[in-house]
Write a structure and sequence with these properties.
This protein is α/β, with parallel strands linked by helices. A six-stranded parallel beta sheet has the order 3-2-1-4-5-6, with helices on both faces.
Length: 213
């Protein structure tokens, strides 16, 4: 007998109505050790994801670990694009899901799909992603808006999440999945937010075709 609930969980798409974004520990000190993705690319991607969430009015929860004593403050480029009224939850727990304030912030959104990105992938993303999945949420992990300290750690973290039922994706795909329709009034701002490297070429092609018609 097929478990239809499990099937639907993987096939029900993200939307601006059902999703929230949880950003875990994109801190200056941690980013200095990232080796599995170019740090500039990681910054670009997580900032784009946050801007996309704001464009679509998707709730954001953000957290740091021991910002005053160990890993430093949130990445300035990311802090700049977050809602000005958003409280960055600073905690001591290794697993962000073990911090009651994080769970309360997630629960307050009344959303059941969580997009989790963070540094590092195998700890700051994987631990809360697995815990939230066990708690009944559907979790998406955009792998290119997260980073870690070696390829081995990346592989181990992705495998562990996959085994636990976390859905792996990338920052731009998560954003356009929530957009749903390119006819949406938010589409131009959404694509500007995620700033895909090839998007300029697409725009140039559209201009050429518009001139021919």
């Amino acid at each position: 007998m097929t478990d239809t609930s499990a099937v639907s969980r993987f096939h029900e798409p993200l939307s601006r109505e059902n999703a929230l974004l949880l950003l875990v520990d994109h801190q200056i000190g941690l980013l200095t050790g990232v080796r599995d993705i170019d740090v500039a690319e990681l910054k670009h991607n997580v900032v784009g994801l946050a801007k996309a969430a704001r464009t679509l009015e998707v709730p954001i929860v953000a957290t740091t670990t021991s910002a005053e004593s160990m890993w430093g403050p949130l990445l300035p480029e990311l802090a700049e694009v977050l809602p000005p009224e958003l409280e960055i939850i600073d905690r001591s727990t290794v697993n962000a899901w073990h911090e009651p304030r994080v769970r309360e912030a997630v629960e307050a959104t009344r959303r059941q799909k969580i997009i989790i990105a963070g540094v590092s992938t195998e700890v700051c993303v994987a631990f809360p992603a697995i815990a939230a999945t066990a708690a009944g949420y559907t979790v998406f992990a955009p792998v290119d808006a997260s980073g870690t300290f070696s390829e081995t750690k990346r592989a181990a973290g992705l495998l562990r999440m996959h085994q636990a039922g976390v859905i792996l994706t990338d920052y731009a795909t998560a954003a356009v999945e929530m957009l749903e329709d390119n006819a949406s009034p938010q589409a131009p701002d959404l694509y500007a937010a995620i700033d895909m490297p090839f998007a300029v070429l697409v725009g140039q092609l559209a201009t050429v075709y518009a001139k021919r018609s």
